[in-house]
Amino acid sequence: MNDKKVVGEKAVEYVKDGMVVGLGTGSTVFHTISKLGKLVEEGLSIKGIPTSKQTEKLAKEVGIPLVMFNEIEQIDLAIDGADEVDDDFNLIKGGGGALLREKIIAKAAKSFIVIADPHKRVNKLGAFPLPVEVVPFGFEMTMKHIQDLGCSPHLRQNNGIPFLTDNGNYIFDCHFPKISQPGELEKNLNLIPGVVENGLFVGMADKVITLNREKTIIINGRV
Ligand SMILES: O=C(CO)[C@H](O)[C@H](O)COP(=O)(O)O
Fold first, then answer.
1. Active-site residue identified among 9, 56, 84, 102
2. C-beta 28 within 6 A of ligand 1
3. Residue 186: which CATH number?
4. How many angstroms separate the CA atoms of 193 and 183, rounded?
5. Which CDD domains does this one have (predicted)?
6. How far apart (Å, rounded) are the C-alpha atoms in residues 199 and 201?
7. Could you give the count of Cα atoms lying within 13 Å of 15 in the half-sphere of its Cβ?
8. What is the pLDDT of residues 144-178, one digit of tens each?
9. How far is the CA of 155 from the centre of ligand 1 (A)?
């Protein structure tokens, strides 16, 4: 049984005809997007708005019509994966480096559904290093300020070359000990000059679709 496929495809049930759908990034939402592509082929009429270039490519491949922000009034629903989900549905995201566009789209959506295989569920956030997107200019200084908040940041690299986000920025993966006040940390990180956004999504998820130990689908939500 592929846990990511099960939760990813379950989320499709919330997509209705005529909706504008925020399409997340990663290997879980891959299954959502692939299934949506099949439904579009069978006549479902939706428009997608992608959270990354990678997702844009996938959505085009599977035949989901895409829109830009200037063409829409609102996003009805956003569906995305997560790297960690705590008991209050707060998230760490950005393992794939798409956290900024993901947060813009989740914030703009009337409803935000998170799909998470059981390994993503935690009591408290922090085992997964928190991704923080920073502008390249002066990143060495930005790093020191992030460090002052109590973590050890590592510049994300591929073969010794800094990883670049779709926005042309760098990512620091920040090892904090357990994150007990995610809302405060989210705000404090974003107050640092040079920080563009961080991967804490606090109070944003409306529903979390996951699996329990028996591999039954569990849907928890605020609404
Ligand atoms: O935040 C993300 C990308 O920036 C992803 O949603 C997160 O990394 C989960 O990915 P996956 O579904 O592949 O486990």
1. 102
2. yes
3. 3.30.70.260
4. 18
5. RPI_A (cd01398)
6. 6
7. 26
8. 999 999 999 999 999 999 999 999 999 999 999 88
9. 18
Give the ipTM of the model, two decimals please: 0.98
User: Which CATH number belongs to the domain containing residue 66 in this structure?
Assistant: 3.40.50.1360
Domain boundaries, position 33: 3-118+202-213
- Told to judge if 84 belongs to the known catalytic residues of this protein, a careful annotator would answer no
Residue 207 sits in the same domain as residue 186:
no
- Residue 186's pLDDT is 98
C-alpha 82 – ligand 1 centre gap (Å): 5
Identify the segments of the chain with pLDDT beneath 70: 223
pTM for this structure?
0.97
Our count of domains for the chain comes to: 2
Q: Which residues pair with 121 in a beta bridge?
A: 85
Within a 10 A sphere around the Cβ of 91, how many other Cβ atoms? 31
User: Ligand 1 pocket: which of 56, 93, 102, 103 to mutate (most atoms <8 Å of CB)?
Assistant: 93
